Every structure is written in structure tokens, then in C-alpha cells.
């Protein structure tokens, strides 16, 4: 019986893991924690929790994800995205266990034009991306059996995300400008959660992996698809340049991730982003 600790369990990915966990009840016992149950910045508390509950696998979904806010709160961002994952990795490694660290497309500079592979040079452009990359490095250094899984454009039926925001704005406004010169792949958090559980079930092959849904689009295309699926017709969506929508943190212009490695390592079949979006949106009505 595997003992799996899921941190950041009240977030989008943590909640999706919670929903899927019963499918693995015969082989896994899950411990879902958020900051109230376990403060991942408290090294002693982490060691105690992992030892007392005989945790052999940590899935770290906790992170500082407010990309713009990170620019003005670099210390807190570093603590949550870099230092804390290192503590988790160190503690589970001491028990002979393994770890799954969730990371981001922001570790790349977004200046490329072909999908990023795991071994491509990283070059984060802001505090969020830099701290997430340092978190990856800390986990790999502290826990030899760890798996880093980078994702992008995450959404779900839980919490606040782009899909919910665009649905709300589409119903409230007559017109909307959305960035068209940032290209990536939306990711349904449930599909990512399923991929993580598949990897744990089959046995983690240590290394860095990429996971998003298949296909590519701009934020503008993504919004048009959201409105089309929802039947929103009263809001005119117009494409705008990144420069027309200034924000504190620089966004990658191109952050498509190559997923060949995770597909071959774990035999995972990945859905087209629009099929996944339709399923998620059915759960929002």
C-alpha cells in the first residue's frame, strides 16, 4: 500500500487528485493537506508528518502562482516555490521515497517557435519562473527518485482560472479584448492529475517531463472556444497585442511543450485541448 501525501490539496490540481483518488483506493492511501493541515515552509513539521504517516510519495501541488504578484513578493514566492519543495524532497528521500514536483512553462523564455523539450535550455524571465526552476533543481538534488512535471495554462471546475473568468466576462460585457500573440496549450487539471496518478501507479521513472493537452492556440482562440461551447453570442471578442495589456511580469510568447517523453515513458494518451475543455465546461453548468 502506497502512502501518498498531496500538498496544496485545495487548489485546482489538488482537488482533481482528490476526485480521482478513490480509483486507486486498493493500492494507495492518500493524505490531502493544505496550509491548515501542513505548513510546507516548516521543515520540522514536514519531517514529522512524512515519518508519522509513513509517506513514500509526495505530490507537491502547492505553489505561489500569482505571476504578477510574484514580482513584488519575491521572498514569499521563493519560499513557497523553491525552499519548501526542497524540504519536502529531503524529508521523503530520508524515508526512501519519491516525489512529484509540479512545475511550469515559465521556466522557458518563450522566444522559441517549436515545442520545448525537457532538455532545452531554461531561461525564466520573472520571479515566478525563476523560483519554480530553482524548486525543480532543489527537488532533483534532494530526492534522486523524483519526477518534475511541467505544465501550462491550467484550468478546472475548481477555484479561479481563465475559463471561468472568460465565461463571466462574456456574459457581463458586450466586447472583450484578448491577447492573440501568446501561444500555448491549455491544460485541464483533471487530465494532468490522471497523468500523475498513472505515473505513480506504473512506477515513477525519475526525470523531467512535460504535460499539457494536445494542440495549440492563443488566449484569443481559447476565449473564442470557451464562448462557442457556452453558447455566448452577445460579446464581441477582439484580438489584442501583449503590448496593449501591460502587466508587471513578462509572459512567454510561445510556451508549447513537447510531450513525447511522458507519452512513451508511461503509455499515456493525451486528449486534444478542445475535447478536454468541453468536458470541463459540462461540469460548470
Write the layout of secondary structure elements.
Blueprint: E1 2-7, H1 12-20, E2 28-32, H2 43-52, E3 57-60, H3 67-70, H4 74-94, E4 98-104, H5 127-142, E5 147-151, E6 154-155, H6 162-172, E7 175-179, E8 183-184, E9 187-188, H7 189-202, E10 207-210, E11 217-218, H8 219-230, E12 236-240, H9 260-266, H10 273-282
Helix pairs in contact: 1-7, 2-4, 4-5, 6-8, 8-10
Explain what the structure shows.
With 285 residues, the protein is of the alpha/beta class. It has one domain (2-159, 185-214, 256-271): Rossmann fold. It is 40% helix and 17% strand. The protein has helices spanning 12-20, 43-52, 67-70, 74-94, 127-142, 162-172, 189-202, 219-230, 260-266, 273-282, and strands spanning 2-7, 28-32, 57-60, 98-104, 147-151, 154-155, 175-179, 183-184, 187-188, 207-210, 217-218, 236-240. A six-stranded parallel sheet has the order 2-1-3-4-5-10, with helices on both faces. Strand 1 (2-7), helix 1 (12-20) and strand 2 form a beta-alpha-beta unit. Helix 4 (74-94) packs parallel to helix 5 (127-142). The chain is globular.
Write a concise synopsis of the structure shown.
The chain is of the alpha/beta class and about 280 residues long. It contains 10 helices and 12 strands. Helix 1 (about 10-20) links the parallel strand 1 and strand 2.
How large is the radius of gyration?
A: 19 Å
Tell me the span between the first and last alpha carbons. 37 Å
The top-level CATH class is Alpha Beta
**What is the β-strand count?**
12
Order of helices and strands: EHEHEHHEHEEHEEEHEEHEHH
* Count of domain modules: 1
Mean of all residue-level pLDDT scores: 97
CATH homology-level superfamily: NAD(P)-binding Rossmann-like Domain
- CATH names the topology as Rossmann fold
| pLDDT < 50 stretches | none
By CATH, the architecture is named: 3-Layer(aba) Sandwich
Strand content of the residues, in percent? 15-25%
Number of helices: 10
Give the overall form. globular
Please give the share of residues in helix: 40-55%
Largest pleated sheet: 6 strands, parallel
> Which strand order do you get reading across the main beta sheet?
2-1-3-4-5-10
Structural class: alpha/beta
Amino acid at each position: 500500500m502506497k502512502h501518498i501525501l498531496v500538498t496544496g490539496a485545495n487548489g485546482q490540481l489538488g482537488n482533481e487528485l482528490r476526485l480521482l483518488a478513490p480509483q486507486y483506493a486498493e493500492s494507495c492511501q492518500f493524505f490531502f493537506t493544505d496550509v491548515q493541515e501542513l505548513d510546507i515552509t516548516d521543515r520540522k513539521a514536514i519531517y514529522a508528518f512524512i515519518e508519522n504517516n509513513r509517506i513514500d510519495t509526495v505530490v507537491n501541488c502547492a505553489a505561489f502562482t500569482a505571476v504578477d504578484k510574484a514580482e513584488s513578493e519575491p521572498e514569499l514566492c521563493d519560499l513557497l516555490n523553491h525552499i519548501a519543495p526542497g524540504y519536502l524532497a529531503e524529508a521523503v528521500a530520508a524515508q526512501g521515497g519519491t516525489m512529484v514536483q509540479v512545475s511550469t512553462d515559465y521556466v522557458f523564455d518563450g522566444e522559441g517557435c517549436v515545442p520545448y523539450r525537457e532538455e532545452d535550455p531554461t531561461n525564466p524571465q520573472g520571479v515566478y519562473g525563476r523560483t519554480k526552476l530553482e524548486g525543480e533543481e532543489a527537488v532533483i538534488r534532494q530526492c534522486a527518485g523524483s519526477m518534475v512535471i511541467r505544465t501550462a495554462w491550467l484550468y478546472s471546475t475548481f477555484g479561479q482560472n481563465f475559463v471561468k473568468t472568460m465565461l463571466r466576462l462574456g456574459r457581463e460585457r458586450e466586447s472583450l479584448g484578448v491577447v492573440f500573440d501568446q501561444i500555448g496549450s491549455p491544460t485541464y487539471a483533471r487530465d494532468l492529475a490522471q497523468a500523475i496518478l498513472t505515473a505513480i501507479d506504473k512506477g515513477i521513472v525519475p526525470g523531467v517531463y512535460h504535460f499539457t493537452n494536445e494542440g495549440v492556440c492563443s488566449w484569443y482562440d481559447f476565449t473564442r472556444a470557451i464562448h462557442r461551447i457556452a453558447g455566448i453570442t452577445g460579446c464581441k471578442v477582439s484580438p489584442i497585442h501583449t503590448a496593449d495589456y501591460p502587466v508587471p511580469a513578462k509572459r512567454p510568447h510561445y510556451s508549447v511543450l513537447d510531450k513525447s517523453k511522458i507519452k512513451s515513458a508511461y503509455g499515456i494518451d493525451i486528449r486534444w485541448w478542445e475535447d478536454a475543455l468541453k468536458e470541463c465546461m459540462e461540469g460548470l453548468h
